[in-house]
Amino acid sequence: MQTLASAKMKDVLSLWIGLGYNRRAMWLRDACIELSHMQKFPQDYRTLLKIKGIGSYTARSILVFAYNMDLAAVDTNVQRVLILHGFIDEKMGKKEVQEIADLLIPRGKSRDYHNALMDYGAINRVNKVQKKSKVVPFDKSNRYYRGKVLKFLVEREGSSIESIALDVQLSQEKLMKVIDQLTEENHILKKNCKYYLAP
Prior knowledge:
The protein has a domain at 138-197: Winged helix-like DNA-binding domain superfamily/Winged helix DNA-binding domain (Arc Repressor Mutant, subunit A). It contains eleven helices and two strands. It has helices at residues 2-5, 9-16, 22-36, 45-49, 56-67, 76-84, 94-103, 110-123, 142-155, 161-168, 172-184, and strands spanning 188-191, 194-197. A two-stranded antiparallel sheet has the order 1-2. α2 (9-16) packs across α3, α6 packs across α8 and α9 crosses α11 (172-184). It is globular.
């Protein structure tokens, strides 16, 4: 944790690229910075929620998998299983689903229970098939180009917009929208018409 807390964002991103939303890497480092100032790692739900980047599901997952607490962490796979076996239905709101999921926890076996549910849900997919006409291919998505820009800047900091556009193969107009988002989220910064990863 201390190593990540003191790491430069460039180094964190260079290891994170390809693992999903890049802002999660920033949140993870920021969380480690915050946690490094605490006397011990929090073991209660409300304290975990105060840490930037930790939401309800993540807080519950930490308490389940690290401390085997009798809480339910409901992800897509867990929800699939609960629907499949009639404990909940698709029309229920998150609060009601959470309440039912909490009641189903076998006391003292929360970690094993969640591992089993997640594996079972992943194997027995029962989700409705998404409408293909509305699915954007990943290699055409905004998320794809954000990742390409960050990867490029990890390798070649101090590049111009023209160089980035040529590498990621995106028009400068569309690229500027991606860069504006990354700048607003403090992933990158601009100095003298050149782009750099945020420190």
